[in-house]
């Protein structure tokens, strides 16, 4: 039960945790990290495991709806339109797969066009990782309508092909265009439709003298139900993790004393790059999980993995604790706020050199700072 008193059904976070521990060989690697830290003074490693449980869905009823349109032409080709925006997350690919599964035809017979309110009016915003859930069910509804219209022709010609049934329906003046619509059921007292869970184990190595760090390995296990497209979903998991890595480790917002933002673009704002990707990056999808509240028992996957990148932050904290212990200062009495930039890591690794830096706040109004961090 959550802190807002919603019962989590079919919660798989424990299974994700156990599988992540096993896949990453966590306990043996933790011993290896401790051994490395005993043998090295100025380079330290840390390893942690972090779970996540992400509530999927909107708390506003009017946003829990979607529409779709299916047009079938006499050559058997299908034009699919829905209300979701494709922005690289594979939404069009998944919607074609849904239509292919319902209509029982190959994906290469189905095409999509640019999303427009002239074909699917009043679309719900593409956000919150629910676009596949909502639009997928609308596509399913439209395809089922088409199937019901084609049923008599399939019965009359059971050995026929898709093209035969379509042409027969056209000749019989059957409407080969259908609009689909879906709205989620109402569940009293529930803020979210369901939860996407996962766990990540990350090992890092820091340079205590420069504050630099490297992500050596990350293992992720995500519960995404019965994936509509594992290749797309694994890409989403990897992308969300790297985006979260930027949030927790790199992307420091700076402002001038008058409040205007200084970090306005890539020239002044550190973004994740190719070297930010873990040297070894393993992603596994939890098997045997179901989700009856979404299309074909799948789960949302765009945003849920982002928090798992905090495993990098906490692994860095473990490495800093080892460095502080070697320096004879308290390994726990320090704050590590995100983003943990190189400067933050260096100053957290207290030693005889950092003591020469005066970090005490000066007298108020005694100077004008160059920048103010958020």
Automatic annotation (TrEMBL):
<dbReference type="Pfam" id="PF20256">
    <property type="entry name" value="MoCoBD_2"/>
</dbReference>
<dbReference type="InterPro" id="IPR046867">
    <property type="entry name" value="AldOxase/xan_DH_MoCoBD2"/>
</dbReference>
<protein>
    <recommendedName>
        <fullName>Aldehyde oxidase/xanthine dehydrogenase second molybdopterin binding domain-containing protein</fullName>
    </recommendedName>
</protein>
<dbReference type="GO" id="GO:0016491">
    <property type="term" value="F:oxidoreductase activity"/>
</dbReference>
<dbReference type="InterPro" id="IPR016208">
    <property type="entry name" value="Ald_Oxase/xanthine_DH-like"/>
</dbReference>
<dbReference type="InterPro" id="IPR037165">
    <property type="entry name" value="AldOxase/xan_DH_Mopterin-bd_sf"/>
</dbReference>
<feature type="domain" description="Aldehyde oxidase/xanthine dehydrogenase second molybdopterin binding">
    <location>
        <begin position="20"/>
        <end position="278"/>
    </location>
</feature>
<dbReference type="GO" id="GO:0005506">
    <property type="term" value="F:iron ion binding"/>
</dbReference>
């Amino acid at each position: 039960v959550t802190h807002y008193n919603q019962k989590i059904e079919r919660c798989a976070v424990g299974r994700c945790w156990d599988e992540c521990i096993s896949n990453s060989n966590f306990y043996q690697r933790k011993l290896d990290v401790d051994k490395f830290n005993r043998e090295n003074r100025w380079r330290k490693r840390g390893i942690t495991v972090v779970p996540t449980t992400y509530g999927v869905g909107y708390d506003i009823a009017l946003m829990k709806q979607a529409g779709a349109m299916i047009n079938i032409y006499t050559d058997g080709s299908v034009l699919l339109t829905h209300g979701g925006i494709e922005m690289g997350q594979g939404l069009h690919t998944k919607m074609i797969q849904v239509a292919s599964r319902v209509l029982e035809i190959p994906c290469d017979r189905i095409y999509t066009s640019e999303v427009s309110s002239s074909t699917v009016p009043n679309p719900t915003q593409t956000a919150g990782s629910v676009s596949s859930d909502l639009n997928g069910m609308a596509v399913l509804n439209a395809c089922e309508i088409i199937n019901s219209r084609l049923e008599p022709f399939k019965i009359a010609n059971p050995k026929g092909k898709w093209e035969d049934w379509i042409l027969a329906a056209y000749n019989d003046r059957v409407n080969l265009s259908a609009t689909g619509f879906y709205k989620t059921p109402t569940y009293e007292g529930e803020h979210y439709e369901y939860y996407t869970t996962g766990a990540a184990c990350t090992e890092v190595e820091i340079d205590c003298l420069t504050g630099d760090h490297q992500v050596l390995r990350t293992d992720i296990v995500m519960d995404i139900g019965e994936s509509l497209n594992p290749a797309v979903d694994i890409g989403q998991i990897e992308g969300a993790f790297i985006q979260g890595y930027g949030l927790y480790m790199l992307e420091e917002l700076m402002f001038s004393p008058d409040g205007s933002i200084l970090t306005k673009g890539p020239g002044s704002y550190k973004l994740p790059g190719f070297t930010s990707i873990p040297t070894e990056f393993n992603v596994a999808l939890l098997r045997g999980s179901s989700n009856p509240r979404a299309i074909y028992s799948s789960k949302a996957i765009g945003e849920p993995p982002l928090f798992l990148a905090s495993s990098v932050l906490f692994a860095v904290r473990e490495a800093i604790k080892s460095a502080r212990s070697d320096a004879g200062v308290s390994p726990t009495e320090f704050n590590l706020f995100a983003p943990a930039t190189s400067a933050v890591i260096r100053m957290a690794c207290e030693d005889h050199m950092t003591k020469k830096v005066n970090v005490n706040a000066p007298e108020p109004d005694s100077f004008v700072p160059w920048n103010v961090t958020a």
